[in-house]
Amino acid sequence: MSRRWRRRYRRRRMVTGVVVAGALALFALGAFWSHGPPQGDSSGGRGKEEKEEPQAPYEAVPPSGDAAPLAGRDIEMDARLERKALGADRERSVPVGRTLLAGVTDASDGPLKDHRLVAYYGTPLSDQMGVLGEHPPEKMMELLRRQAAAYSTADPERPAVPTIELIASIAQREPGADGLYVTRTDPGIIRRYARFAREHGALLMLDVQLGRASVMEEVRALREFLEMPHVHLAVDTEYAVGPGEVPGVNLGSVDGSEINRAVRYLDRIVEEKGVPDKVLLVHQFQSGIVTGKDAIRPTDDVQVVLHADGFGRVEDKFMKYRVLVREQPVQYGGFKVFYNLDEPVLEPERVLMLDPAPAVVTYQ
Questions:
Q1: Are 3 and 109 in contact (CB under 8 A)?
Q2: pLDDT above 50 for 17
Q3: Contact 235, 262 (CB under 8 A)
Q4: Residue 41 to residue 43: CA distance in whole angstroms
Q5: Mean pLDDT of the chain, nearest integer
Q6: In which band, very low, low, confident or very high, does the pLDDT at 67 lie, cut at 50, 70 and 90?
Q7: How confident is the model over 161-167, as a mean pLDDT?
Q8: In sequence order, what are the residues at sequence separation of 6 or more whose Cβ sits closer than 8 angstroms to the Cβ of residue 333?
Q9: Coil/strand/helix, residue 222
Q10: CB-based contacts of 27: which residues, under 8 Å, 6+ apart?
Q11: Residue 354: its pLDDT value, please?
């Protein structure tokens, strides 16, 4: 949670305490004049009990009882894969298990400081767009918590938080009435998943596919939800196309300056609404899809994750992570695993051998 959020909470608690104390004093004075001193309180009254600080709006899945620290285990990696992940010199930029990229800091109190997010991606409107739509919500959550538990056990020093990555705007091959080639998910569905995530101690990450809409057009439409303490944001950059282009036919791109406008927008929400710090996840399918990355600047209230997306052979995925995340550092890295398309489907211990270890792991 944000440091500013905690300070505001304490100020509100202090003001509330003063008001309550004043009301009690007036009540006691009235009782004295009407009936004499209150009975049974020879101590003169008890002080108001201190309230506990508000808890984080999520609950990590605990590791198994015999889980050993990731850094202390000898996990073998094929030399060929190691070169793909680390480069020709096969030297790590950060120690095993560390999620912050080399040379960067995190001044926030966001969930990635001490936790990892393990997410299921998709929409309940289709079973063809990710695992999220392949099961009823309760079954999906059971499977998600099981997957998160595997990461907590693989790295018990950074327990995993179940996260639902819900597609909030879906790119289309038809222009639609507004000509933007994107359809927004019914707000009623988003509200149901926001409530469902909260009830299960999970986070909700709203993913925007852009079509010809701008980043901020789609992000502003989600303000109601982004003001919720447990809701975060993802941008699917490959679907952002220009005039004469069609999502899914033409490969899109987004400039880092547009991403940074979303960072600043989230930062203002945290400041204005006093909610916990936010995460912004940026999907990138290949080089060139996110341009001008040096314009993306995390803040004291917003953590930023560059996420290496795509399916296929594990050696290709490891190299993609190195090129798109490690060699173009912003703050944190993310990695996607496809249950039905990856060759092979990596176990958590293997995923966490990437450099740096992904702070967000998404399953599709």
A1: yes
A2: no
A3: yes
A4: 5
A5: 85
A6: confident
A7: 98
A8: 99, 101, 305, 306, 307, 308, 321, 325, 326, 354, 356, 357, 358, 359, 360
A9: coil
A10: none
A11: 94
d(CA 133, CA 123): 5
Specify the DSSP class assigned to residue 351. H
Q: How many CA atoms lie within 13 A of 193 on its CB side?
A: 31
Can you read off the two tokens belonging to residue 153?
A: 């056990």
DSSP E strands in 19-87: the ranges are none
C-alpha distances (whole Å) from 296 to each of 70, 258, 283 are 30, 9, 14
Confidence of residue 4 (pLDDT cuts 50, 70, 90): low
CB burial of 204-220 (b: ≥16 within 10 Å; e: otherwise) equals bbbbbbbbbbebebbbe
Q: What is the pLDDT of residue 48?
A: 32
**Closest of 337, 249, 326, 245 to residue 293, by C-alpha:** 326
Residue type at 320 in one-letter notation: K
Which segments of 172-202 are extended strands (E)? Answer: 182-184
> String of b and e for 267-304 (b: at least 16 CB within 10 Å)?
bebbbeebbbbbbbbbbbbeeebbeebeebebbbbbbb
Mean pLDDT across the stretch 85-90?
83
Average pLDDT over residues 86-96: 87
| Contact call for residues 352 and 70 (beta carbons, < 8 A) | yes
What contacts 358, CB < 8 A, 6 or more positions away? 99, 116, 321, 332, 333, 334, 335, 351, 352
Q: Write out the E strands in 107-159.
A: 116-122
Residue type, 352: L
pLDDT for the residue numbered 18: 35
Is 269 within 8 Å of 288 (Cβ atoms)? no
The 10 Å Cβ neighbour count of residue 9 is 16
Write b or e for each residue in 16-26: b if 16 or more Cβ atoms lie within 10 A of its Cβ, otherwise e: eeeeeeeeeee
Task: Please tell me the distance from the alpha carbon of residue 265 to that of residue 168, in angstroms, as a whole number.
Answer: 17
Higher pLDDT pick, 99 / 50: 99
15 pLDDT band, cuts 50/70/90, is: very low
pLDDT digits (tens, 9 = 90+) for 283-310: 998 888 999 999 999 999 999 999 998 8
Token reading at 188: 């009623």
How many CA atoms does the CB half-sphere of 279 hold within 13 Å?
29
